[in-house]
Amino acid sequence: MSLYRPVTIGPLALDGNVFFAPLSGVSTSPVRKLAREFGANLVYSEMIKAQGVVHGNIKSRHYLEMDPDEHPVGVQLADADPKALVEAAHAALDRGADLIDLNCGCPVKKVVKTECGAALLKDPPLIGRIIRELRAAVPDHIPVTLKIRVGWDGLNKNGPHVAKIAEDNGAAAVTVHGRTREQLYSGRVDLEMIAKVKAAVSIPVIGNGDILTPEDAKRMLETTGCDGVMVGRGAVGNPWLFGRIRAHLEGRPAPEPGVDEKRKGLVRMLALLCASHGDYTGVRMMRKFVGWFTHGVPGGKRFRGDMMEIEDPAVLAAFIDARFGVRLGGLDEDEAPARVAAGED
Ligand SMILES: Cc1cc2nc3c(=O)[nH]c(=O)nc-3n(C[C@H](O)[C@H](O)[C@H](O)COP(=O)(O)O)c2cc1C
Q1: Is cis: bond before 72, omega within 30 of 0?
Q2: What is the pLDDT of residues 204-213, one digit of tens each?
């Protein structure tokens, strides 16, 4: 059987098992939409503080925005207060969320200081209570899930226990980033711990961490027995990874995208950003995102520098079309490697 397969999260049936991770400051609506277009089977909002939603914080409310074309989309909430989480979940459902996810993995100091994110791993009964209250508060067709790390630190790898408590209280799936909070993003993901989480529960387990290539995704599925994979950093500026993972899991060739394909992706990204955020903000966000698309591409640095001057989206699209690819950065591709070696990019 192919490792690429449908997965059902509670009542939510998904065509495949390759997901795009919640990424603060990155996984905004147009980026999620792009991920969906390129093959992600489920996408998530970035972490949204429930108290922020409850208190009408404009930024938090803005994070709830979603596009009709990006479904299925999960909204990820962070908080330790069940009441605030329930209220925020309702606001997310009003905007069309297909799934509510509880963040139990964010390692950032200012988050764990307020007992949220990965700090919840220190209080599994509270996780159970939150899941139970969310489950009771949202309609039956909406799955409630959670995203955890394998534990707080090396001495407290309680991921399997946390996952079991969550399952017993109604969680429909659990995503596991194979690091502890203490590790932040250092070291390697612990596939053995992800396998232990998988062994502890009957709900789907989504393996996460360090999936940068189709081969990494296959290793994650084969080694841990998990039901799906979630890709974060590896897909930033590289949405082709979703399709390539699928192809590899299905036993088909999974070649890297060519420059031409990348150029088309860039033009598409610009259109999505401007449609979602308006021309002014769209162009500025594009300037930020363009670094991802041109990373490691010969002549990319000059290309980025030149595009900083452009304000008009139509001019920018024409610039990308003309400059990215055949004569990126004004250089013939054949010439470019010498400039890269000289530290141009
Ligand atoms: C910039 C950045 C922002 C992140 N924001 C979130 C977030 O909002 N919610 C969350 O659960 N995880 C967040 N994460 C963690 C990722 O979802 C993921 O678990 C982690 O990066 C490991 O997967 P990867 O190696 O595929 O990136 C973030 C990670 C990064 C690098």
Answers
A1: yes
A2: 999 999 999 9
